[in-house]
Amino acid sequence: EGLGEHRAKAERMYSLMDGFLKNDPISLQKDILHHVEYTVARSRFSFDDFEAYQALAHTVRDRLIERWHDTHIYFKRTKPKRLYFLSLEFLMGRSLSNSVINLGIEDQCAEALNQLGFEFEVVAEQEGDAALGNGGLARLSACQMDSLATLDYPAWGYGLRYEYGLFRQIIVDGFQHEKPDYWLNFGNPWEIERIHVTYEVKFYGTVEEVEMNGEKQKVWIPGETVEAVAYDNPIPGYGTRNTINLRLWAAKPSSKFDLEAYNTGDYINSVVNRQKAETISNVLYPDDRSHQGKELRLKQQYFFVSASLQDIMRRFKEEHTNFDELPEKVALHLNDTHPSLSIAEVMRMLVDEEHLGWHKAWDIVCKIFSFTTHTMVTDGEKIPVDLLESLLPRHLEILYEINFNFMEELKKRIGLDYSRLALLSIVEEGAMKNIRMANLAIVCSHTVNGVSKLHLEKLKTKTFKEFYGLYPEKFQCKTNGVTQRRWIVVSNPGLRDLISKWLGTEAWIRDADLLSGLRDHLDNADFHLEWKMVKKVNKMRLAEYIEAMSGVKVSLDAMFDVQVKRIHEYKRQLLNIFGIIHRYNCLKNMDKDSRRKVVPRVCIIGGKAAPGYEIAKKIIKLCHAVAEKINNDTDIGDLLKVVFIPDYNVSVAELVIPGADLSQHLSTAGNEASGTGNMKFLMNGCLLLATADGSTVEIIEEIGEDNLFLFGAKVHEVEKRRQKRLSNLAPLQPAKIPLHFARVLRMVRDGYFGHKDYFKSLCETVEFGFGNDYYLLTSDFGSYLEAQAAADKAFVNQDKWTRMSILSVAGSGRFSSDRTIQDYAESTWKINPCRCPL
Ligand code: F58
Fold this sequence. Notes:
By secondary structure, the chain is of the alpha/beta class. It contains 34 helices and 24 strands. A hairpin with a 6-residue loop joins β10 (224-236) and β11 (243-253). 49% of the residues are buried. It binds N-[(cyclohexylcarbonyl)carbamoyl]-beta-D-glucopyranosylamine. N-[(cyclohexylcarbonyl)carbamoyl]-beta-D-glucopyranosylamine (F58) is lined by residues 89, 134-137, 140, 287-291, 374-375, 451, 480, 672-676, 694.
C-alpha cells in the first residue's frame, strides 16, 4: 500500500514537472530568459555577457542536476562498490564549456545564445576559474573526476571548499605579487549548497578511559566543535547520463556554540569567536612542495577527513547493519599523504564509536585504503607530534598503537635491526618527534601507486626501498593521464573537428586509443594543410592574448616556444632563460645573411612561484628583465621575443597549449614524478623539448625518440655528475664551466639585465662553492642548446615538423586519464562501471 501511494505521488509530481528538461535551442532560450529574470534578477530585455553567462550556467546546472539525481538514485538502487577519492586539492578551472560538451548540448546552446544576440565563446569567457589547488596534483584530480564520470564508475570526490583559491599572480615591474582569489564573489552556479548535509568536526580536548560493559574504553572529550557543510558539484560524464558528485566541505560555526554564548553573556566576543571556525576552510596553502608543521593546515586536513568519513560511513550504515562488508563496498583513495589522517579516523570510528575491537577494525582498514604519491622528494610530509597531541589527542594514541603493532610485527620479520626499524617507523624519533605520513599511508594501504614507471622505480629503489622490501606486491605503476575532453575538445575545437573528420568518428573522445588512426593519413597533403591551418588559428588566438596582456606584438611565422608550469628550481626555468640569453648573444654576433636563416622565436614562460620561495620569484623577475632587454632591441626585431604570461591557470593553459609549436619540460632527470603538461601539449600536436624524466620516458616509448627533442643527463647519470662536480672542483678553483654557460651567467651576474644585487643569490644557485648547481644546469646546457638547434632545424622543414606533430597526437592515446582510471578501477579499487540507464 505504502509503495502504491508513493508511486502515485511520484507520478503526479512527474506530470507536473512536464518531464525532463528539453535541450532544443528554443527550450534552452526559454530557460536562459527565465534565469535572467528570476535567478540573476535582470530584465530579459537587457542583460550583458556576464549575466548571459550566469543565466546559461543555471540553465546547464538544471540539466546537470537531473542527471546527477538519476545517477545517485541508480547507485543507491544497485548498491555497487563505491570509490571515494579523497583529495585536498582540485583544479577544476571553468565548468561551462566542459559541462555543455559532456552533456552533448554545445550546438544547441550556441544557437540559443546566438538567437538572443550572444556568442558562446564570449559568454564562456566570463567565467572565472575554480582554482582549489596548486598544480599538477590538483589538475590531475580534476582530470580523473572527468574520467570517473565518463567511464560510469560509482565514484565520489571529496575535497575542501576554500573561499580563497590559489592566489592570483600580479606582475608589477617584473616582480610577482600575490592577490587573494576570492572566487565566490560573483556566486558559483556550479555548486549546490546542502544546508542539511552537515557534520560536527571536533578538535582539541582530552582522552579519558571509561568502563563500558566491563571493558576499559578510551573516550575523546573534544574541546572545540566546528560544523562542516556540504557543497556538491556535479561532474558530468561524456556520452553517458552518469553525473557524479564532487562534495566539498566548508567550515561553519557549530550551532552548539550558541548555548555557550548565551550562558557566558559575552555576546560580541562569542560571535567573534564563532567566526574563527570559518577560517579552517578559508584559504588554500599555496606551496607546491610541502606545508610542514602548520596548525591550520593540520586542522584543514582533519576537518576534511572527519566530515568526509562521517558522510561515507553514514551512507554505508544506511545499507548495512555491520561492518563486515565495508571492504566489498567501499574503496578509499588517498590522493597523496594529505588525507592520511583518514586511517586514524576510520580506526577511531570503528574502535571507539562502533566498538568493533582493535583487530577487527585493523583488518578492515587494511583492506579499504589505497594511496598514490605524487612526489620524487624523499623527505615527505610530517606532522609534529606535539601539534597532534593538542589538536587530536585520541588520534595520536591511535597512531602510536598502529606503530607499536607494526614495529612488533616487523621485529618478528626482520629481527632487532634498529636502524631499519627506525627507517620504517611511522613515528620519527628525535628532538622533534614527527608522524611520517607516507609511512602511515604505506603500512595501511593495500596498494601504493607511483605516477609513472620512472617514479615507481624510484619509489622501489630509493624513497621507499625498505617498504618495497617488505611489501613488494603493494607497489604499482599508474602512469598519469589527462582528459582529452578538456585538453582537446574544450580547448582546441579546431583540432577536435579535424581529428573527427579524418578518423571519420568522434569515438576517440571516449576512446583515446583511436587517435592512433591518424597515422593512416601521415602522408596526405590535404591533411597536412588542414593540420597547419588549425595550428595557425590557435597561434593567432594566442598572439592576440599575448598582445593584450603584455603589449608585445609577435609574428605568427615565429616558432611559439612555451614553458608553462609552477616555477621551481628543479623544473629549470632558469635553463630556459639562459638559453634565451645565449640565443640573443648569437643573434647579436651574426651578420645579416646568417640572420636571414634564423628561425624566429617567441619564447613564452608562465607560472606561479610559491609566495615564500625567493629563488623562484627571482626567476620570474629575471625573465622580465631579459624580456625587456631583448624585446626593446630594435636590432633583433621579430627574430626573438620573450613573453611572460601572468597568472597562469587552467583557462590560460587552455589558450596557450593549443597555440604552442614547441613546449619545454626541463626538469633534471629524477625530479618530476610524472608531469602532465607534457601530455597536454602532446595531445595538441605540440612538439616536446624535454629531459628523460617522469612520464616523458613513456611518451618516448609511444612516439619514438625521433619525434621529440630529448636532451640532458639521464636519471642514472645525474647522481654521478653531481658527485663529479663536487669532487673535481675544489671550492676555490675556478669551475670548468662551458664557455657559453659562463658567458650567460656572467651577463646576469654583472648586471647586464640590471638588478645586479637582486640576481646575485639566483646566480649563486648554479655556482660552485654556493648552491653547487644541484640541478645540473651547467652540465646539461650544451646538450640543451643542441636540442634547441635540432628544433630550429626541424621547424624549417615544415613537412617534417607537421609529421612529428601528427605523430605526437597519434601517440597520445595512452596518456588519457581514461586509461589511468580504468587501470585504477580494475587493479586497485576493484570497482565496476555502473551505468545509469537513459
Ligand atoms: C605533482 N605534484 C608532481 N604536488 O610534481 C608532478 O610530477 C605530477 O605529474 C603531478 O603531481 C600529478 O601526479 C604536485 O603537484 C603538489 O602540488 C602538492 C600540493 C600540496 C602540498 C605538497 C605539494
